[in-house]
Amino acid sequence: MSATRLLVLGAVRTRGEAHGYQVRQDLLLWAADQWANVKPGSIYHALKKLAADHLLEEVTTQESELGPDRVVYRITQQGEGEFFFLLNKALSDPETGPAMFNAALPFITTLDRGNLIFLLKSRIQHTKAGADSTRLLIDNTVAPENGQPGKPPHVREMFTYWLVTIQAEVRWLEDLVARLEAGEYVFADDSPAAFGNPPH
Amino acid sequence: MSATRLLVLGAVRTRGEAHGYQVRQDLLLWAADQWANVKPGSIYHALKKLAADHLLEEVTTQESELGPDRVVYRITQQGEGEFFFLLNKALSDPETGPAMFNAALPFITTLDRGNLIFLLKSRIQHTKAGADSTRLLIDNTVAPENGQPGKPPHVREMFTYWLVTIQAEVRWLEDLVARLEAGEYVFADDSPAAFGNPPH
DNA sequence: CGGAAGCTAGTCAAGTTTGACTAGCGCTCG
DNA sequence: CGAGCGCTAGTCAAACTTGACTAGCTTCCG
């Protein structure tokens, strides 16, 4: 349910083996601190939690000669399962929110192209459905007859704001799908060396 | 810095006096649970924290005949200051994020019309500036020459996604400003009974 | 009438996030 | 050469969030 979880799990998976600081640097590189909350503390916490849940395993505690000790992690079988589960959900279900979607983007090329397109189309459908029900809410937002604070006018503004951003998202998604269908990017079924797939 | 803080502070202020459950109901009515995180626990925590910071004061602990005891709060002088500070910031500074902006919307009519328009125009400026620098980032996102994981292609997608949503936001903001300039809504300087202003 | 459901009002422990802090090492520059 | 800066790697307490739980009262419905 957390964007950090997916990001950290995926970052370790991509490297094959990684310690906390490497994950931290990778996430920084993909600007994850901007839109998700990946402060240092969260990353180390996530690593420990994932290890406790047997989704990651501790490989070694290296005595690095340069700076303090490092704990190296690797993804487990269960972790693989969880990773793809989270990835699918984050991509297809708009209710998981934009943070989750952004967290999923780094790993899209680990999927097969057709698969990803399917997931994105599913997201588009659900998003459009959400937009429709928001439109209904806008139409039904009437001023209350009683004097109580009631449902005030600004609620309508919130809904239109919400609607405008979803519409923009849908257009962007449809454009992305079109580009993917036209062959953009290298996916897992195009080449095993697609970005994001673990080495060796 | 937190949307809950602004929402709870503003909700109490709007009522004049309120206990936790009333705040909870108001926020629910404003659909605040949707986009901000206003689970019951957070509200009661926020109330206690705001009271500890002397932004709210405890009025009475009423023995209500209907259900358990209630603690009634009222905003203090300092709270008034903090409220308008947070409100201004949430409206004018896009870096505080959409959650903060949504949390501010319920209270816009407590401002003077010209003041709000000024704040929103400021937001538009900053948002546009952000879009420009994002555009630069997109242009500079080149594939890395070295073999390292590097800055991968999806980062570009994230930026375009980001760009599309902020563009939608700007258009919406400009539309809102136009409507405000045309006289929509009743503001604090139109009538003291504008929505969101405390009673008596 | 009785009891199931629902509302009012709030508490609490467990989990998560924050961001300031430690501490060693290398590099640079006057 | 040594003082200061910045990087590597991570810890930690304090703050915040979550959502399940309590407990009394009212209302509905057969």
TrEMBL record, chains A, B:
InterPro entries: Metal_resp_DNA-bind_regulator, Tscrpt_reg_PadR_N, WH-like_DNA-bd_sf, WH_DNA-bd_sf. It comes from the Bacteria. Residues 8-82 form the Transcription regulator PadR N-terminal domain. This is Transcriptional regulator.
